[in-house]
Amino acid sequence: MTRAASAEDLSAQVEADFGQLDPAFWQSTSDVNVIHAIFPKLIEFKNSETWDWELSSAESIEQVDELTIRFKLKPGLMWTNGYGEVTAEDVEYSFERFNNEALAASNAGDWAPLKDVEVVDTYTGLIHLNEPFAPIWWSTLPYAAGSIISKKATEEQGGTFTTAPKATAGPYKIDRWDQGQRTVLVAHEGWNGDTTVQTCIVHLVRHSLNFCGWKDRKNVAKDLKRVYSPAWQVMFTSPRRRPPVTVRLKRLWLTLRLNGARNILQSPQVGVGHGKK
User: Fold this and answer.
1) pLDDT of amino acid 219
2) Is the pLDDT of residue 196 over 60?
3) What is the separation, in whole angstroms, between the first and last Cα of the chain?
4) Which alpha helices (H) appear in the chain, and where do they start and end?
5) pLDDT tens figures, 250-260
6) Residues contacting 191, CB < 8 A, separation 6+
7) Which of 104, 221, 232, 271 is 20 to 30 A from 132, comparing alpha carbons?
8) Which residues contact 89 (CB under 8 A, 6 or more apart)?
9) Quick check: 167 and 184 in contact, CB under 8 A?
10) What is the rounded distance in angstroms from the CA atom of residue 130 to the CA atom of residue 14?
């Protein structure tokens, strides 16, 4: 297991707070932003302008035939709060629940072609499809629907959750959530990959001025302009309108595993800055 090394922190700016962190029920881009940071996926989008992907929590993954995908998880990926290791059984539970009629997932269509997930051993599984579905490599596995959640923890919560999952295993975990103001994400020590950024403070700016009196708003607005200058901010864009930008953000912000962090964060196309505390 690779522990996160000390590095720079990231300050991000968003216009709306998250409200639903269950991948089967997410409703907004703000939801997806946090889902990508706190839950592992088998594959992730690469940091590029294309829809190319690369391995994430999967050690290997291959299309055996047009209806079968074999995956093997990396060992040592741990759930928070003592829920043990991420296993193929968690993957089975995470994907199959989308098509559970009793759950009535609002995003059930994301896994519509799924037949089932067969658990081979602790880390290995087979994804069986009812029909060929090439977009699974771009619209499903590396996106919110590909998020892996803890079977044990979720069942303890009645089969679903909203803003407080009992266990997560992504590169980051929620350290603090001041609803309507900010979210603090910190590197998850149980993540078995790299986390260059140790802390990401996500500031909600749309309603910032609602927390001060009218006579102070002008001065507060002036200070906010300095705090959220281009050197320190991330402005998120609708994935349906700006897919190339979203690809970069999926790798940059949604997973926050920043390879070559300085070059990426200074990219004018992404519009992101970074700094030390």
Assistant:
1) 74
2) yes
3) 27
4) 29-38, 88-96, 151-156, 217-227, 243-249, 261-265
5) 444 444 433 33
6) 2, 4, 40, 77, 169, 170, 171, 172
7) 104
8) 119, 151
9) no
10) 39
- The first and second tokens of residue 72, run together, are 């093997």
Indicate if the alpha-carbon torsion angle 253, 259, 262, 263 is positive or negative: negative
What is the layout of strands, in order, in the sheet containing 114-119? 58-65, 68-73, 124-129, 114-119
**Distance of alpha carbon 261 from the chain centroid:** 18
* Contact (CB, 8 A) for 243 and 237: no
**pLDDT exceeds 50 at position 73:** yes
Summarize the confidence of residues 10-30 as an average pLDDT: 87
Tell me the pTM. Answer: 0.75
Domains delineated in the chain: 10-265 (3.40.190.10)
Return the residue matching tokens 């590909």. Answer: 146
Q: Which residues contact 13 (CB under 8 A, 6 or more apart)?
A: 202, 203, 205, 228, 232, 233, 234, 235
Q: Mean pLDDT throughout 77-102?
A: 97
Name residue 108's amino acid: A
Give strand pairing partners of 124: 72
pLDDT at 184 over 60: yes
Asked if 190 and 169 count as a contact pair (C-beta separation under 8 A), the reply is yes
Tokens of 14: 């968003």
Instruction: Note the pLDDT of residue 25.
Output: 97
